Amino acid sequence: MLALKKEEESHLSSVKNALRILRSFTMDEPEKKISDLSTALGLNKSTVSRTMATLASEGFVYKDPETKKYRLGLSILSLSGIVNSNMDVYRESQPILNKLVESIGETAHISVMDNLEVIYLQKVECNHPVRFLTHVGRRNPLYCTSSGKVLLAYSNENTIETVIKKGLQSFTKNTITDPQKLRTHLKNIKENGFAYSIEEFLEGVNSIAAPVYDYKGRVIAAISVVGPKQRIQQHKVQGIAKKVVSAGREISTRMGYWK
Length: 259
Prior knowledge:
With 259 residues, the protein is α+β, with helices and mostly antiparallel strands. The chain is built from 9 helices and 8 strands. The protein folds into 2 domains: 2-78, Winged helix-like DNA-binding domain superfamily/Winged helix DNA-binding domain (Arc Repressor Mutant, subunit A, Orthogonal Bundle), CATH 1.10.10.10; 87-254, Beta-Lactamase, CATH 3.30.450. Helix 2 crosses helix 3 (45-57) and helix 5 packs antiparallel against helix 9 (237-254). The termini are far apart.
């Protein structure tokens, strides 16, 4: 019985290691060596090597024979397609995002909250894109991005306090790091129905976001536009916000929400 329990614990540990390894790949670091993974995750090289061999055999990672680096395999892509096809907000937002980009001339996103972070599900580039840290699958802080602040503002008090307790790291001089100022700011976002970030996460980058509701009236996602401060200027925020809010309402209606 004891031996069986130890075997089960070993299997669970192996699964956890595999998941940690897969989640460590990002758009910023799409390829990694065994040594990179070992150092980053605090795992023995032999453990990482065995796990990667298993993942490779199932198509979840691919090893470049020349560089010896690993990258995510096509099995991940097939799972991603299944997830996306079952997410109504992903499907319903596509035409609205296209229309919003055409109207405003800036890149637009759909994002959701996951593990106290904002994660981008959908992205439509404008005709003159600038490289931002907002690619699909990218995770950013909740409290200093417009989409993150919308999601946080409409969440419960426990979530807000948990984010505050984790610490409000300063990314720029405009990042809100004072807990009470953030609470007040989030309250204003709910009253106004939209959020903006004026160089709070990245210098020279501004964004505006609005909520997306499901048929029960819950905020399940945020729609946002992002661009350089030269194009999304502070005096234009209200005008752009109206279009973003309208787009959010249109997606919400397609999701079955009415008010």
